[in-house]
Amino acid sequence: MPYAFSLTCRAILFDLDGVLIDSNDLYEAHWRSWAAARDVSFEHIRRVHHGRPIPETIQLVAPHLDPVQEAQVYIDTLLKGGHWHRVTPYAKVAALLDALPNNSWAIVTSAPRAVVVRHLVRLRLPLPGVLVAGDDAIRGKPSPDPWRHAARGLGVPISRCVAIEDAPAGVTSAHRAGARVIALTTTNSVDRLSDADYIAAELGALSVTQESDFLRIDYPASSARAASTASSV
User: Fold this and answer.
1) Minimal CA–CA distance to 46: which of 29, 22, 67?
2) CA 22, CA 79: separation in Å to the nearest integer?
3) Regarding beta strands 5-9 and 105-108, do their DSSP bridges make them parallel or antiparallel, or are they unpaired?
4) Percent of the chain residues past pLDDT 90, beyond the cut
5) What is the pTM of this model?
6) Calpha distance 103→75 (Å, rounded)
7) Which burial class, exposed, middle or buried, applies to 163 when counting CB atoms under 10 A from its CB (0-12, 13-18, 19+)?
8) What are the tens digits of pLDDT across the range 195-228?
9) How far apart are CA 162 and CA 215, in angstroms?
10) C-alpha triplet 141, 119, 39: angle, nearest 5°
11) Would strands 161-165 and 88-89 be described as parallel, antiparallel, or unpaired?
12) Euclidean distance between CA atoms 18 and 188, whole angstroms
Protein backbone atom coordinates (compact mmCIF):
# COMPACT_ATOMS: atom_id res chain seq x y z
CA MET A 1 0.00 0.00 0.00
CA PRO A 2 1.42 3.43 -0.88
CA TYR A 3 2.19 5.66 2.12
CA ALA A 4 3.02 9.36 2.37
CA PHE A 5 6.73 10.18 2.59
CA SER A 6 9.29 12.98 2.36
CA LEU A 7 13.02 12.72 1.63
CA THR A 8 15.98 14.71 0.31
CA CYS A 9 18.73 13.83 -2.16
CA ARG A 10 21.39 15.34 -4.38
CA ALA A 11 20.19 13.74 -7.62
CA ILE A 12 17.28 11.75 -9.04
CA LEU A 13 17.92 8.82 -11.36
CA PHE A 14 14.84 8.10 -13.46
CA ASP A 15 13.96 4.93 -15.27
CA LEU A 16 12.23 5.81 -18.55
CA ASP A 17 9.44 3.41 -19.50
CA GLY A 18 6.71 3.29 -16.88
CA VAL A 19 8.24 6.27 -15.05
CA LEU A 20 8.59 9.20 -17.46
CA ILE A 21 6.62 7.79 -20.38
CA ASP A 22 3.78 5.31 -20.87
CA SER A 23 5.15 3.05 -23.61
CA ASN A 24 3.65 -0.28 -22.61
CA ASP A 25 1.35 -0.52 -25.66
CA LEU A 26 4.26 0.05 -28.05
CA TYR A 27 6.48 -2.64 -26.58
CA GLU A 28 3.71 -5.17 -26.08
CA ALA A 29 2.61 -4.81 -29.70
CA HIS A 30 6.14 -5.52 -30.93
CA TRP A 31 6.83 -8.27 -28.40
CA ARG A 32 3.57 -9.94 -29.42
CA SER A 33 4.60 -9.92 -33.10
CA TRP A 34 8.12 -11.14 -32.28
CA ALA A 35 6.75 -13.97 -30.11
CA ALA A 36 4.19 -15.10 -32.70
CA ALA A 37 6.84 -15.29 -35.44
CA ARG A 38 9.05 -17.52 -33.26
CA ASP A 39 6.40 -19.57 -31.45
CA VAL A 40 7.42 -18.11 -28.08
CA SER A 41 5.00 -17.48 -25.19
CA PHE A 42 3.98 -13.83 -25.15
CA GLU A 43 2.63 -14.26 -21.61
CA HIS A 44 6.10 -15.29 -20.47
CA ILE A 45 7.51 -12.14 -22.10
CA ARG A 46 4.83 -9.99 -20.45
CA ARG A 47 5.83 -11.29 -17.02
CA VAL A 48 9.57 -10.65 -17.32
CA HIS A 49 10.36 -7.92 -19.86
CA HIS A 50 9.74 -4.84 -17.69
CA GLY A 51 13.04 -3.32 -16.60
CA ARG A 52 15.25 -5.84 -18.40
CA PRO A 53 17.54 -5.33 -21.42
CA ILE A 54 16.09 -6.88 -24.57
CA PRO A 55 18.80 -9.57 -24.97
CA GLU A 56 18.23 -10.74 -21.38
CA THR A 57 14.48 -10.97 -21.93
CA ILE A 58 15.07 -13.08 -25.04
CA GLN A 59 17.51 -15.30 -23.19
CA LEU A 60 14.90 -15.90 -20.49
CA VAL A 61 11.95 -16.64 -22.78
CA ALA A 62 13.74 -18.30 -25.72
CA PRO A 63 17.10 -19.77 -24.62
CA HIS A 64 17.34 -21.68 -27.91
CA LEU A 65 17.70 -18.41 -29.86
CA ASP A 66 20.72 -16.10 -30.21
CA PRO A 67 19.84 -13.24 -27.84
CA VAL A 68 22.15 -10.67 -29.43
CA GLN A 69 21.00 -11.34 -32.98
CA GLU A 70 17.32 -11.50 -32.01
CA ALA A 71 17.58 -8.32 -29.94
CA GLN A 72 18.95 -6.45 -32.95
CA VAL A 73 16.09 -7.75 -35.10
CA TYR A 74 13.61 -6.62 -32.45
CA ILE A 75 15.18 -3.15 -32.17
CA ASP A 76 15.33 -2.68 -35.96
CA THR A 77 11.68 -3.68 -36.27
CA LEU A 78 10.73 -1.39 -33.42
CA LEU A 79 12.47 1.63 -34.95
CA LYS A 80 10.97 1.00 -38.41
CA GLY A 81 7.52 -0.06 -37.24
CA GLY A 82 4.40 1.72 -36.10
CA HIS A 83 2.60 2.19 -32.79
CA TRP A 84 4.83 5.10 -31.72
CA HIS A 85 1.71 7.27 -31.44
CA ARG A 86 0.70 5.10 -28.49
CA VAL A 87 3.57 6.45 -26.38
CA THR A 88 2.76 9.44 -24.16
CA PRO A 89 4.51 11.22 -21.29
CA TYR A 90 2.99 10.84 -17.85
CA ALA A 91 1.31 13.88 -16.31
CA LYS A 92 3.61 16.73 -15.21
CA VAL A 93 6.77 15.01 -16.45
CA ALA A 94 7.83 17.75 -18.89
CA ALA A 95 7.43 20.48 -16.27
CA LEU A 96 9.35 18.46 -13.68
CA LEU A 97 12.33 17.74 -15.94
CA ASP A 98 12.46 21.31 -17.22
CA ALA A 99 12.62 22.59 -13.63
CA LEU A 100 15.47 20.31 -12.50
CA PRO A 101 19.09 21.51 -12.80
CA ASN A 102 20.81 19.54 -15.55
CA ASN A 103 23.43 18.11 -13.17
CA SER A 104 20.82 16.80 -10.73
CA TRP A 105 19.10 14.12 -12.81
CA ALA A 106 19.80 11.28 -15.21
CA ILE A 107 17.93 8.59 -17.10
CA VAL A 108 18.84 4.96 -16.43
CA THR A 109 16.96 2.58 -18.72
CA SER A 110 17.12 -0.86 -20.28
CA ALA A 111 15.84 0.54 -23.59
CA PRO A 112 18.34 0.99 -26.46
CA ARG A 113 19.82 4.48 -26.79
CA ALA A 114 18.36 5.09 -30.26
CA VAL A 115 14.88 4.24 -28.98
CA VAL A 116 15.28 6.46 -25.92
CA VAL A 117 16.40 9.48 -27.95
CA ARG A 118 13.55 8.98 -30.40
CA HIS A 119 11.04 8.92 -27.53
CA LEU A 120 12.42 12.06 -25.91
CA VAL A 121 12.68 14.05 -29.15
CA ARG A 122 9.24 12.98 -30.36
CA LEU A 123 7.61 13.84 -27.02
CA ARG A 124 9.60 17.09 -26.66
CA LEU A 125 11.11 16.05 -23.36
CA PRO A 126 14.59 17.32 -22.43
CA LEU A 127 17.59 15.16 -23.14
CA PRO A 128 19.53 14.44 -19.95
CA GLY A 129 23.18 15.28 -19.52
CA VAL A 130 23.68 11.69 -18.36
CA LEU A 131 21.86 8.85 -20.12
CA VAL A 132 22.59 5.20 -19.38
CA ALA A 133 20.91 2.94 -21.96
CA GLY A 134 20.43 -0.79 -22.32
CA ASP A 135 22.96 -1.14 -25.14
CA ASP A 136 25.79 0.65 -23.34
CA ALA A 137 28.87 -1.47 -22.69
CA ILE A 138 27.96 -2.26 -19.08
CA ARG A 139 25.93 -5.00 -17.43
CA GLY A 140 22.23 -4.13 -17.46
CA LYS A 141 19.57 -4.34 -14.79
CA PRO A 142 19.22 -6.16 -12.40
CA SER A 143 23.00 -5.58 -12.12
CA PRO A 144 23.79 -2.45 -10.04
CA ASP A 145 26.15 -1.13 -12.74
CA PRO A 146 23.75 1.20 -14.64
CA TRP A 147 22.82 3.24 -11.55
CA ARG A 148 26.41 3.51 -10.34
CA HIS A 149 27.49 4.60 -13.83
CA ALA A 150 24.85 7.35 -13.83
CA ALA A 151 25.81 8.57 -10.37
CA ARG A 152 29.47 8.79 -11.39
CA GLY A 153 28.47 10.70 -14.50
CA LEU A 154 26.69 13.29 -12.33
CA GLY A 155 29.52 13.37 -9.80
CA VAL A 156 27.15 12.45 -6.97
CA PRO A 157 27.63 9.58 -4.48
CA ILE A 158 25.07 6.86 -5.20
CA SER A 159 24.02 6.99 -1.53
CA ARG A 160 22.83 10.57 -2.13
CA CYS A 161 20.75 9.55 -5.15
CA VAL A 162 17.12 8.47 -5.35
CA ALA A 163 16.20 6.01 -8.08
CA ILE A 164 12.64 6.03 -9.41
CA GLU A 165 11.53 2.73 -10.94
CA ASP A 166 8.44 0.77 -11.95
CA ALA A 167 9.80 -2.77 -12.33
CA PRO A 168 11.08 -5.35 -9.81
CA ALA A 169 14.31 -5.87 -11.79
CA GLY A 170 14.99 -2.13 -11.66
CA VAL A 171 14.23 -1.92 -7.93
CA THR A 172 16.65 -4.77 -7.26
CA SER A 173 19.28 -3.14 -9.48
CA ALA A 174 19.05 0.26 -7.77
CA HIS A 175 19.15 -1.27 -4.29
CA ARG A 176 22.24 -3.27 -5.16
CA ALA A 177 23.86 -0.05 -6.34
CA GLY A 178 23.18 1.65 -2.97
CA ALA A 179 20.46 4.12 -3.97
CA ARG A 180 17.19 4.70 -2.17
CA VAL A 181 14.31 3.58 -4.36
CA ILE A 182 10.85 4.96 -5.05
CA ALA A 183 8.71 2.46 -6.95
CA LEU A 184 5.74 3.57 -9.05
CA THR A 185 2.73 1.30 -9.49
CA THR A 186 2.28 2.16 -13.19
CA THR A 187 3.14 -1.30 -14.57
CA ASN A 188 3.44 -3.58 -11.53
CA SER A 189 1.44 -4.24 -8.38
CA VAL A 190 2.44 -3.06 -4.92
CA ASP A 191 3.23 -6.66 -3.95
CA ARG A 192 5.78 -7.03 -6.74
CA LEU A 193 7.44 -3.74 -5.74
CA SER A 194 7.60 -4.40 -2.00
CA ASP A 195 11.42 -4.29 -1.92
CA ALA A 196 11.37 -0.55 -2.70
CA ASP A 197 11.93 1.95 0.11
CA TYR A 198 8.88 3.96 -0.91
CA ILE A 199 5.90 3.34 -3.19
CA ALA A 200 3.83 5.92 -5.07
CA ALA A 201 1.14 5.85 -7.75
CA GLU A 202 2.96 7.81 -10.48
CA LEU A 203 5.59 10.47 -10.96
CA GLY A 204 3.08 13.30 -11.28
CA ALA A 205 1.89 12.64 -7.73
CA LEU A 206 5.35 13.52 -6.37
CA SER A 207 6.34 17.06 -5.52
CA VAL A 208 10.01 17.85 -6.26
CA THR A 209 11.51 21.14 -5.11
CA GLN A 210 15.06 22.49 -5.04
CA GLU A 211 16.33 23.64 -1.65
CA SER A 212 19.87 25.02 -1.56
CA ASP A 213 22.11 22.24 -2.95
CA PHE A 214 19.65 19.37 -2.58
CA LEU A 215 16.29 18.21 -3.88
CA ARG A 216 13.27 17.52 -1.71
CA ILE A 217 10.78 14.85 -2.78
CA ASP A 218 7.35 14.78 -1.16
CA TYR A 219 4.52 12.33 -1.61
CA PRO A 220 1.60 13.95 0.20
CA ALA A 221 -0.92 12.04 2.28
CA SER A 222 -3.73 13.02 -0.10
CA SER A 223 -1.98 11.30 -3.04
CA ALA A 224 -1.17 8.25 -0.94
CA ARG A 225 -4.80 7.89 0.14
CA ALA A 226 -6.01 8.27 -3.44
CA ALA A 227 -3.57 5.61 -4.67
CA SER A 228 -4.57 3.22 -1.89
CA THR A 229 -8.25 3.70 -2.66
CA ALA A 230 -7.68 3.12 -6.38
CA SER A 231 -5.67 -0.05 -5.76
CA SER A 232 -8.44 -1.50 -3.60
CA VAL A 233 -11.21 -0.98 -6.19
Assistant:
1) 29
2) 17
3) unpaired
4) 73
5) 0.88
6) 30
7) buried
8) 999 999 999 999 999 988 899 999 987 666 555 5
9) 10
10) 60
11) unpaired
12) 9
